[in-house]
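Notes continue from the previous slide.

Worked example: a multi-chain complex. Inputs as given:
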Amino acid sequence: MPDTEKTAPSNFIRAIIEDDLASHKWSGRMATRFPPEPNGYLHYGHAKSICLNFGLARDYGGICHLRFDDTNPEKEEQEYVDAIIDAVRWLGFDWHEHLYFASDYFDRLYEFAKYLIAHGWAYVDSQTADEMRERRGSHIEPGEDSPYRNRSVDENLDLFRRMKAGEFADGVHVLRARIDMASPNFNLRDPVIYRIRHAEHHRTGNKWCIYPLYDYTHCISDALERISHSICTLEFEDHRPLYDWILDRLQPVIGWHPQQIEFARLNLTYVVLSKRKLIGLVEQGYVDGWDDPRLPTLIGARRRGYTAAGFRLFTDRIGVAKADSWIDMSVLEECMREDLNLVAERRIAVLNPVRLIIDNYPADRDELCHAPNHPLKHELGTRDVVLTRELWIERDDYMESPSKGYFRLFPGNRVRLRYAYVVECTGAEYDEHGGLIAVHCNYLPDTKSGTPGSDSVKAKGNIHWLSTTHAADAEVRLYDRLFNVPHPGADGRDYLLDLNPDSRQIISARIEPALMQAAAEQNFQFERHGYFVADRVDSRPDKPVFNRTVGLKDTWVKSA
RNA sequence: AGGGGAGUCGCCAAGUGGUAAGGCAUCGGAUUUUGAUUCCGACAUUCGCAGGUUCGAUCCCUGCCUCCCCUGCCA
């Protein structure tokens, strides 16, 4: 991480940490964790959490663990573990040796459960799931105690041991915390902490047939790792009393009790971040897979050309608080532009070509023009582009009858061919259907960029171009937002109805030869268009494929 | 017998009994061989509403309104 990266502004979590550090509350320790469940791909919302947890550790001289919350063998897979590790690393963070799995704690979790049973704080319930639900009560009435709630410690211990030994089928018994069936907080109405699942776990194989649940596992994992600040999203606020209840009981044997702090999860316009909806998009083929550049997954973002630094900037910019809020997609896009503007080398591509013929330029002439690779970083040098009599220019850089304020090519107007000469437009040719075939112009010989006096002739317009004899072809994928409304699926509408049918357009573009050797994942700015990246999956040297990451801001189309 | 949270500029978001940071967006203007970038300037007499306490309230008290979360053997 560059030192130049500014740290985030003050927020309530930083205030808590600063107080704790000042009061030496955690013996000076500062440790956070990012605790994904390996049951899917990480999305933009996770990026907020990752940047928050790792960023806090970085800024306060602490550490951030990467811990997989892998307590549900039926949903979790190694493939996801690997993808998550890649994604966190890609975002620029390092957990050093602190890579953990809740499943590594299964033995201790089991012992702690026996401790709870021995103290009368947990019991084996033998009701069916339906019976448990019926007795759970509701918002206006308390729950009823299970008929098994007062089994003896010995019987509970025996039953629990036999659950572990595999003597019972799935669902026959569960271990529950004995708290309060009348609590207004449902999480305290004797929550289940262990269930029987005869399923193979991606890490522990068939060693276990009982698996602990989240509420029981998470707090203990945090405590065992000596986490100081356990940061999670708002929906876990109601779980905090349970988190505290368990660690209070286990205080004598664990001796550490992290503080759970909740923040508002990310809501972003023009995308969906719910796992269910993302799965729907992938499985029903609306996108090409989990790494489709239009999907708000981190693997998709990476393929689209979004940068890790852009995500970090985004996280700092949106802040963190407890109020539900919606961030507009344009904020994320602007963060990407901001980073890309600094790092992306400039190149030329003509996406929608039409011929420009310089009538007074010799047909046999090849002239080198020098284009800087970056306007702000001269140390990045220049490259040569060849000027010839016949060029490709953008179709919309010519207007037969210019609208008000238009200052590109139209009969009688002058524009500068970027890095080359000023030309004066003389007219255009059309086919029998009125389609534009070619634009004609004459160049002004004394105006070549970089030569003395080249600025004597002023031209407000400045257009990019490529020699028709030297340009190469490349596939370019123009990505746009996946949905065309800010809140897909709002008010109960089917979110698929809000899909943007033009979220991807694949075209064949003209590119400058220097682009032919683009390395996978190399970011560029195609001048006057936007930021593009060589596709990390399909791009090949000599056969590059570019994805549009995000367009440049354009105050002209906005006013038009 | 309900419980837990949240409401400060268009979007985020600090702040806190002493008279509303910052960012983004927007609008002006300058610079510019990208209609980009950069730069400069403008941008909440007001903090969900109504009362109260106080010399003084966004902050404390009371009442109300709106929004979000909670009855998986998911996380």
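Summary box: The longest strand of chain A covers residues 422-430. The CA atoms of residues 147 and 369 of chain A lie 87 Å apart.
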